[in-house]
Amino acid sequence: MLEIKLGTKLALCALSAFIIAAVVFFIVHKAGTLWIDHKFSDPAFVEQQQDLEIQNLQEYITNSQASALDYHVVSNWVKERQLTTLFLYYGDRLIYDSTITYHAGNLASGRLTSPLPWQKTYPLQFSDVEVTAVVSTLARHRFVDQLNIIGLTVFFLTFLLIMLYYVRRKVVYIHQLAQEIKNIESGNLNFPITIKGKDELASLAQDVDKMRHALLKQIIRFQKVRKDRDQFAVHMSHDLRTPVTSLIGYLDIVNQKRCPSKEIQEQYLHKAEEKALQLKNLSENMFKHFLTSMDESKAEDIFCDSAAINLLIDDGLILLESHLFQCLASKYEGEAAFFAIRRTSLQRILDNIFSNLLKYADPAFAIEISCHRGGQGLAISFSNPIRTEKTGAVASAGIGLKSAGEIARQNGGSLHIHKQDGVFQCTLFIPEIP
């Protein structure tokens, strides 16, 4: 963007105002000159101007109650009129001449002379006598002087109005910027800064608007980070409780000596050890990623194959059966395949789903679990009637299933939950690696 400095812009505006004012002055002066030429080309108009001069003088003398020998009164009037000459005659004697400041001592001592034949004479009445007056006025020059005054007035008014208009626009824009900056200062960052022109003010407004965008992005980023941090903390706390619950369940079964055989007892102890290791990994992951995000897709872990998925489902089945739930499971039995989800992520998803089943599934009915391969992935379905009697448990906010859905989405899968007529259905889809 080509920027014009404010000083240069002001100089250009002053030059433009001067040119426009000069053009207006020329037009006014030209029109006035044509009007004066037209008027003074008419002898009647010129004679009318002389008549007006005599009438003005007569009114002046009448108001002053001057006599024919009060020359100072007549001289004052001539000085005020400037471009007017006056000759006064009493009979055939000149008693006053304004061109040479001559005046007679008395009416009888004037110069013996008469008006020239082509000069028009006017009767002039003083308080004592009547004299003859010859007036000569340069009315044309008076009109030209007045025209020059009018033209110069129009010139300066035009110049000032243009400059004031430009300065007022800049002042209004500065006030607007000040108000918009106050909005930013008060924390209102949603209203843009107005950018007008290509000078320093426009550049300043653009820089302020960029600062507003940067602050807005920073606030949005901060809010997102805080939201992700809080969400991550909530999800991780829930995911930490799930293996702890399973670990306590396995150890409780072993301690209460409810295992039918030593092999099953060793199997429970092995599962308890796995849950303890899972708890350790989750806690390390929480401290590692607490201030960033809960993105599991970048974790250093291997992708799950069909055998690993079956083992994770078996862990969940053992947990459900240890709590006296009946399970009808149909695990994956097709060809070996790899799926685009890491073992840690899938374990967290299944732990949340099985934890939800432990809390809300009706133990009087069997829990159905099935795996179906199709649609370029694997679908694991869970179905069970929902427990209706009060258990004294705190109402769930669905954090576990929300966390499971978020983890599935981050790994390219999906988790669909449906509740109808007291039946809970949940379908986990995992994309397959070609």
UniProtKB/TrEMBL annotation:
Keywords: ATP-binding, Cell membrane, Kinase, Membrane, Nucleotide-binding, Phosphoprotein, Transferase, Transmembrane, Transmembrane helix, Two-component regulatory system. Residues 235-434 form the Histidine kinase domain. It is an enzyme of class 2 (transferase). GO terms for molecular function: ATP binding; phosphorelay sensor kinase activity. One of its GO terms (cellular component) is plasma membrane. It is a multi-pass membrane protein. It catalyses: ATP + protein L-histidine = ADP + protein N-phospho-L-histidine. It comes from the Bacteria. Residues 168-220 form the HAMP domain. It is found in: Cell membrane. The keyword Translocase does not apply. Its EC number is 2.7.13.3. The keyword Cytoplasm does not apply. The chain crosses the membrane at residues 6-28, 147-167. This is histidine kinase. It comes from Desulfitobacterium hafniense DP7.
